[in-house]
Amino acid sequence: MTRASSSGFAGERPVSFADAKAEFFLSIRPAKPAPGTVSGYDSDLRIIGELAARSCGVPLADLRVDRLTGRVLRAAFAEFADDHAAASILRAWSAWNRFMNFAVAEEFVEGNPMAAVPHPKAPSKAPKPFQGDGTAQTLLEKIAAGAREARDPWVERDLVALAFPLVTGARSAELLGVTLGSFGGSPGDRRVQLTGKGGKTRSVPVEVPLERLVDAYLLSRMERFGLATLPLTSPLLVNTGNEPLRRGGLQYLVGQCYRFAGVHDRVSRGALVHTLRHEFATRLAENGASAHELKELLGHSSITTGQHYVESTARELRLTASSSPTYGVLDALLADAPPP
Asked: Coiled-coil annotation: which residues (predicted)?
C-alpha cells in the first residue's frame, strides 16, 4: 500500500478504505481494547463504509479513503439513522471519528470530515444510587435477618454479593471475576484486585468488616459442600450447586434481595448490580471524596492519573474507601458474631 504523498495527500495510489481500516485496527492493538469494542468498531466501520461506497457508486472493495468527504459520510449516516436508535448512531459516529482521526494522523487524508456529520447528544450518565436515605442499611439488615425466601437459602453468600460492591464499587463483571486469590495484604490492611474494562486491573482497599463477612461466608461454603479447603483459584461467588455464579444468576440474586427487602421501588429502572456501585461512589462523594480518588477507586480512565499517583495516594485512597457508611452497618451486623 502506498500512502498519500506529503505534498498533497494524493499519492500515486490513493489508500483504499480496506487498507486504512486494517492499519487502524493494527494501531489500536497495543492498547488492548476489549473484544466487544473491536467487534463494535468493525461492524460500524463496515456498515457505514458500505453505505458510503453506495453513495459514491463503487463497490466497498474499491472505496478509497479520499472519497470519504463530509458530504458522503453525512449521506451515509443519514441512511443509517433511518433504522437505528440514537445510541447506535452515536456509537457509530464515535467509531468513525476515531478512524478518521487516525487517517489524518497517517496522512491518508487532509482533514477529518466527521465535523460535518451531525450526531445525537450523548445521554446523561447521572449516577443511579438507591433512592432514599438508609436504603443500603435496610437492604443489608433485612437480608441478614433472612428476609429473602428461597428453596435453598444462603444468607452468608447473599450478604457478600451485596456488601462487596457496596464497599468496593465493583462492577458486575469485576465481582464475578474475583477469586480467593484476588485478596492480598496483611490482616487489617487487605486489598482486592479487580479486573475491569479492557483487562485493566486496580487494587481496592477492603476493611475488617468485609474481611469478616467473607470469612463467615467461606466457612459456610465449606460446611455446606463438605469441603476441607478452598483453592485460591476458586471464584468468590458460587451458586447453590457450588458452580461459579454467572451474570444472569447474580442479576437474579440481587433483584430478589431488593424485592424481599422491600427496596425494589428505590432502584432506578434498568439498574441492578450497578446500583450498588453507584451507591458506593455517591456516598463517598457526599463524605468529601475527590474526583481523583473516585476515579482511582472505580477504575475510570484518566489522562492525568498514572501509577505514580496511585502509589503516592494509597493511604488517602484507603481512608476514602473506609469512610463508606456500609462498613458501619457491617460492624453492627457482626457485633455479636465470634471472631473467625
From this structure: none
Active-site hit among 67, 277, 278, 283: 277
The dihedral formed by the CA atoms of 10, 14, 16 and 21, expressed in degrees to the nearest 10: -40
pLDDT the model gives residue 296: 78
Q: What is the pLDDT of residues 256-270, one digit of tens each?
A: 999 999 999 999 887
As annotated, the residues of the chain forming the CATH 1.10.150.130 domain(s) are 17-116
What architecture (CATH level 2) is domain 17-116?
Answer: Orthogonal Bundle (1.10)
Active site residue 197: yes
Known catalytic membership, residue 221: no
315 a catalytic residue: no
Query: Catalytic annotation on 274?
Result: yes
pTM: 0.60
CATH number of 135-333: 1.10.443.10
Q: Which amino acid is at 241?
A: G
Characterise 180 by phi-psi region: left (phi > 0), alpha (psi -120 to 50), beta (else). alpha
